[in-house]
Amino acid sequence: MTRTLVAFHAHPDDEALLTSGTMAKAAAQGHRVILVVATDGALGLASDDFRADGDLSAVRLAEAQRSADVLGVARVEWLGYADSGHDGPLPQDPPGQVRFCRAPVEEAAARLAEVLTDEGADVLLTYDAHGGYGHRDHVRVHEVGARAAEIAGTPRVLEATVPRDTIARAVRLAARVYPFPEEFDPTSFERAFTARADITHRVSVRGHIAAKRASMRAHASQASNDGSQSGDRTLAAFLRIPRPVYDLVFGREWFRDPSLPRGGADGIRTDIFEGLA
């Protein structure tokens, strides 16, 4: 049976890191895959080459479309919100827009629910309660996604995440091959994402690793150096990992279904559509 998967992300490039393999796998299986981004990503770091016309948001949304194209995504939607930024006080709203974290949850959820209802979504991918590594827009994705699924009656919500111990080990392994930039704090993964015992789904995406890597590569602005850093951006560092190690690090994706017992009553699941009516 053909299903519809909606992947909801905070910024262009987030899908590449956490769910692109699952999205590519679902599309290859003939399912309809939709990408929804909450913000334009305009506060992301990028080199001057990508800011030449003063509109990084247009660049990043175009990169999201290129990523979607290599993954087999059928539709890309932007909810219309502005990037809230990661650190410091919440910036003022840009003209004609609202920062995602300043928008009421109910309003943002209604926008997402409209897409879910229009598409008849079977599965919605969001983030865990930590927002992964804690970005405030990611936390808001968790909140908005949960409420939107309630409004639309979406049968299944899966929170994209990573087992803390697994990613910490993978980062240590990758660091042996390539030194990460100063901005990258490997210890942050010991405090983020989800405990392994709470993971309900583990999806093998090794067969779609080329699409996942191409999805990362599509977000060229976020792999660029703005001149203030001594090394590569994190995304660039990931792309420089040799394929055998890259396949090991990024060959699986993890999710938590909040409606299921910790770890799943009958063990870890490997199919995000399993058990749907």
TrEMBL record:
GO terms for molecular function: hydrolase activity, acting on carbon-nitrogen (but not peptide) bonds, in linear amides. Keywords: Zinc. It comes from Knoellia locipacati. PANTHER family: N-ACETYLGLUCOSAMINYL-PHOSPHATIDYLINOSITOL DE-N-ACETYLASE, N-ACETYLGLUCOSAMINYL-PHOSPHATIDYLINOSITOL DE-N-ACETYLASE-RELATED. InterPro entries: GlcNAc_PI_deacetylase-related, LmbE-like_dom_sf. GO terms for biological process: glycoside metabolic process. It comes from the Bacteria. This is GlcNAc-PI de-N-acetylase.
